[in-house]
Specification:
Layout lengths: L1 E5 L9 E4 L9 E11 L1 H8 L12 E2 L4 E8 L11 E4 L12 E5 L3 E3 L6 H5 L2 H14 L7 E4 L5 H12 L3 E6 L4 H7 L3 E4 L5 H4 L3 E6 L3 H10 E9 L6 H7 L3 H20 L3 E4 L6 H12 L7 E6 L3 H9 L6 E5 L5
Parallel strand pairs: 9-10, 9-12, 10-11, 12-13, 13-14, 15-16
Antiparallel strand pairs: 1-2, 1-4, 3-5, 3-7, 3-16, 5-6, 6-8
Helix pairs in contact: 3-4, 8-9
Length: about 325
Amino acid sequence: MRAFVVDKYQKKGALRLAELPEPKILDDDVLVRVHATAVNLLDSKIRDGEFKAFLPYKPPFVLGHDLAGTVVRMGAKVKGFSVGDAVYGRPRDFQFGTFADSIAVKAADLAPKPRNLSMEEAASLPLVGLTAWQALVEVGKVKPGQKVFIQAGSGGVGTFAIQLAKHLGAKVATTTSATNADLVRQLGADVFIDYKTQDFETVLSGYDLVLNSQDAAALEKSLRVLKPGGLAISISGPPDTDFAKAQGLNPVLKFVMGLLSGKVRKQARKLSVRYAFLFMRADGAQLRDITALVETNIIRPVVDKVFPFEKTPDALEYVESGRAKGKVVITVTPGV
């Protein structure tokens, strides 16, 4: 099968197109023929080696974290799927690699593809959808009437999170450029802040939750727009000790992550607010909940560009440019 491989950790390193054997499956695996995949900043960060301390992948490895495709074969213990089913998902850590013709995925990480979406549209959703769901529903427990600030509203996570927060009954503020103002308003944003001309800290106050996806400076400001007891959830770091414990990391890494997050946790305590780091996980059951929202048109995918498989490195470069509106998708098997 064809696959794009990372041969070594390197910032902006090249992907190599390789011919690899078809993956073998275990009893709880499903072999999926990948029809479409999507690109995330997570892919470039893993290639660059930013996460190798706690996700120590051994090169060469296949990149890619989203898929939509069809079931080819199933392990002996798999139930609930049949050969030929259209599925989508985000394979779990240490089993990713969707920039390829096929992949072995744990059945628990998959869900039936939304019937009203193309393969390309479905492939755009798993990672960003699960990130938003786990931030707003699982950790944030957003309730009707609360005020939620979602940074980078025109990005992959932002476009999904705005729609989900509105569905949950929240008042939503977001940042983006003026050229994307109409897009975020159409998705449901109540307050739009042009990050090029406005400082969100001077506009927002009394918020219940912030979904931070930007740098450390933006995170510090985000703490100050929260009301007492409010929660800042960051998907861009710094990782904290709770994350280290959940990952089962060794004491040294737990100590390091405690140091990395020490400043922001101290600031949060001074302001009587809370801080949490979120590194999303694969979850087929949550994807089924997301499917229900998609099939009832409560949430719609936002796809910026679709690249052919051979242009996968160009797709990754485009995402790294920061110009994408919504998601960037790759068609692996055309005509499906």
